[in-house]
C-alpha cells in the first residue's frame, strides 16, 4: 500500500529544454495541456517544467484531500524539491495556479526569482470591499460558484458542451472523476483565498496578465495591486481566460523582456 507521501506525489508532465528554469502550474479542472501554446516559445532558452495539480491531469486524487491552498502548495513544494533545482526559478501560474503560485512565492521566497500570474481569479471577501459596485460584482461571482458546486448534473452537462468548443483539448476537464477535486478546490482556494495578502508578502517581482475578455475577471479587482511596487499588471486585448497564442506571446515577453 502506498504511504501518504506517495499518494500526494504530483506528476511532472513536461520537462523540456535547457537554460533558466520556468515552472508552470495550471488552473482548476485542467492539466498541463493549458500551456501548449506557451511551452514552444520558452524551450529554446529555458528548461520548462509543468506540474499537474493534486486531483488533476496525471496526478493522484487522495480520498482524504480537502484541496486547500495549503495542501496544493505543499504538494507543489514537494514536487519542486524532488527536482533538485539549484537556482531560483520563474514560476508561472494560470487561473487557480496563480493563487497557489502567490502562496508558494510568499512562503518560499528564496526559490522564486519571478512570479507570473496569468488570468488570476482574484476575489476578496465582499464584506471587505468599500466600492459598492465592486462588492456587487464579486458577490455575483461567488454566488455563481456556489451554484456550480451544488448542482453537479447541471455543471457536468454544461461543462461537456463548453469543452467541445475550446481550442485547447481538455483545457477544461470537469467530469465525474475530477468532480471532488474541482468543487473542493473551487470552494477552498478560489472562493476563500488570501492572494492579495500573499502578494504583499512576496519579495519577487510579479507580472499579472489578464485577458480583456476574461470571463472570470472582475473589473476593478486589480486596482489595489497597483500600489505594490513589485507588481506590474497588463491587459491583453482580445484574449479570454485561456492561454491562447496572443496571451502566450505576452507571457513569454514577460518572462524574457526585450
Automatic annotation (TrEMBL):
Asked if the record carries the keyword Ubl conjugation, the reply is no
Q: Which UniProt keywords apply?
A: Hydrolase
Positions of the AB hydrolase-1 domain: 21-163
Can you list the GO cellular component terms from the UniProt entry?
membrane
Q: Alphabetically, which GO biological process terms does the record hold? A: acylglycerol catabolic process
Record carries keyword Hydrolase: yes
The record's GO molecular-function terms, alphabetically, read:
monoacylglycerol lipase activity
Q: What is this protein called?
A: Alpha/beta hydrolase
Amino acid at each position: 500500500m502506498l504511504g501518504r507521501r506517495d499518494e500526494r506525489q504530483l506528476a511532472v508532465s513536461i520537462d523540456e529544454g535547457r537554460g533558466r528554469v520556468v515552472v508552470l502550474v495550471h488552473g482548476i479542472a485542467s492539466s498541463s495541456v493549458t500551456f501548449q501554446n506557451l511551452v514552444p516559445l520558452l524551450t529554446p532558452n529555458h528548461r520548462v517544467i509543468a506540474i499537474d495539480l493534486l486531483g488533476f491531469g496525471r496526478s493522484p486524487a487522495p480520498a482524504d484531500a480537502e484541496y486547500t491552498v495549503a495542501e496544493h502548495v505543499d504538494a507543489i513544494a514537494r514536487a519542486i524539491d524532488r527536482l533538485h533545482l539549484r537556482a531560483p526559478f520563474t514560476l508561472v501560474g494560470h487561473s487557480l495556479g496563480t493563487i497557489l503560485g502567490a502562496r508558494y512565492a510568499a512562503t518560499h521566497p528564496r526559490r522564486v526569482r519571478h512570479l507570473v500570474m496569468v488570468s488570476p481569479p482574484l476575489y476578496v471577501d465582499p464584506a471587505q470591499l468599500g466600492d459598492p459596485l465592486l462588492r456587487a460584482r464579486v458577490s455575483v461571482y461567488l454566488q455563481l460558484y456556489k451554484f456550480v458546486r451544488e448542482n453537479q448534473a447541471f455543471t457536468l452537462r454544461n461543462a461537456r458542451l463548453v469543452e467541445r468548443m475550446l481550442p485547447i483539448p481538455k483545457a477544461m476537464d470537469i467530469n465525474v472523476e475530477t468532480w471532488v477535486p474541482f468543487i473542493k478546490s473551487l470552494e477552498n482556494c478560489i472562493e476563500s483565498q488570501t492572494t492579495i495578502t500573499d502578494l504583499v508578502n512576496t519579495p519577487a517581482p510579479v507580472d499579472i496578465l489578464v485577458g480583456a475578455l476574461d470571463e472570470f475577471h472582475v473589473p476593478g479587482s486589480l486596482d489595489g495591486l497597483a500600489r505594490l511596487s513589485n507588481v506590474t499588471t497588463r491587459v491583453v486585448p482580445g484574449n479570454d481566460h485561456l492561454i491562447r497564442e496572443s496571451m502566450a506571446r505576452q507571457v513569454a515577453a514577460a518572462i524574457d523582456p526585450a
